[in-house]
Amino acid sequence: MTKIKVQIKTLPHYEGLPLPVYGTEQSAGMDLHAAIDAPISLQPLQREAIPTGLAMAIPDGYELQIRGRSGLAKKNGIGMVNGIGTIDADYRGEISAIIINLSNETFIVERGMRIAQCVLNKFEKIEWDAVTELDETARGAGGFGSTGTKVA
Q1: How many domains does the chain have?
Q2: Whole-prediction pTM
Q3: pLDDT tens for residues 95-140?
């Protein structure tokens, strides 16, 4: 497996927290920690950008995806407001995780809590080819459940 070197800068409010690491040998994502001074109470349906105290220089041709943690989603109803956040290669500011409380109970975010995960992804740039017709497929324009929900 190829490893990509990514420059990472810790900000003053990150002091004392560990750098992101893979939880297991085959993990795709690294956990990001809440770099906050005081606990944050998230009421039901409240959203908040939680600072991570990290800034990075993502290599050109890559994006850093900020994703929710499945354990927080299942146990506490905590998700990412935008599903997956993208950190572009030219962004140099602090990375935040925009989380939302989808439960019926208050959720407390505390300093050092693992609030999200990050995954580095390579991507390709699009070059548009404007046409008047697209090639035909068996599916055609069928979408939004047109293939059903049960296995045939």
Answers
A1: 1
A2: 0.86
A3: 999 999 999 999 999 999 999 999 999 999 999 999 999 999 888 8
The full 3-state SS of the chain, as one line of letters, equals CCCCCCEEEECHHHCCCCCCCECCCCCCCEEEECCCCCCEEECCCCEEEEECCEEEECCCCEEEEEECCHHHHHHHCEEECCCEEEECCCCCCCCEEEEEECCCCCEEECCCCEEEEEEEEECCCCCCCCCCCCCCCCCCCCCCCCCCCCCC
Asked if residue 89 is part of any domain, the answer here is yes
Q: What is the CATH number of the domain that holds 66?
A: 2.70.40.10
Q: What is the pLDDT of residues 51-85, one digit of tens each?
A: 999 999 999 999 999 999 999 999 999 999 999 99
Q: Does some domain include residue 12? A: no
Domain interval for residue 99: 28-122
